[in-house]
Amino acid sequence: MTPTLQLFLIISAALFSIGLLAALSRRHAIFILIGIEMMLAAANLNFIAFWRFSPQSQPPTGVMIAIFSIAIAAAEAAVGLALVIAVYRHYRTTNVDHLNQLKG
Amino acid sequence: MSSAAVVIIAILTLAAALAAATLQKLMHATLSFAVALVGVAALFFLLGAEFVGLVLVFVYIGAVAVLIVFTILLTRRDVGKDRAANWGGAFLAVAVFGGLTWAILKTQSVAVVAPHIRLVTVKRIGEALMTSYVWPLQCVGLLLTAALIGALVLVMEEKP
Q1: ipTM for the complex?
Q2: Class of the domain covering A5-91
Q3: Domain ranges of chain A
Q4: Cα distance from B112 to chain A (closest Cα, Å)?
Q5: I need a labelling partner for A50 at 20 to 30 A (CA). Which of A28, A36, A61, A90 fits?
């Protein structure tokens, strides 16, 4: 029995929901970043699944978009972690509940 | 591509992701996150996108996970207890999952099996990157440069 597109979409939805859970329910900034990365990985899985289950295209559009999306996710992670370090240096904490003022 | 393999890999991936979302210790959560990404890369391999799976392993596990570990070590003094249970977030996540699953199961046009397609070789990807995707490629290069310079500026020591 071969899997249908539905199976992959449900896996992707579950991964996205777990990422949302991590981003919403944790108080540690690094956990929130991990959740966002998980949601991005779920989106990539959707791109690849839709590409694989649709008629062939030349060039392989889904693959290209997934590659670009991975590159952008890497850039986002680098800037996000730099922000975490900068905030930690200032506030001595990375708990987002304690970061409640804009004034430096 | 068989359903059993997909389901087994999906269960492992989702279990690792759930562990990453709920474990108390940051380091354990990061390692679970890396395991979940290996699972996603395995799904990419099953879907016939070997190159993207390899890129995912290199970029996410080789760079992003290591970067997260470095950040955890640099902010180590702050490893207090994280309040794990937040019922609002959990409820919203379950609601999103339920809504998405309902929509997916209700849509008939996604209940299809994979057609037979030609293998996507690295040569084809490289040709596409150098012809029809050359502008996006340059923009991503610019974006990565800007992001790395921005990250450096952010973490530079402030002059007193």
Answers
A1: 0.90
A2: mainly alpha
A3: 5-91
A4: 5
A5: A36
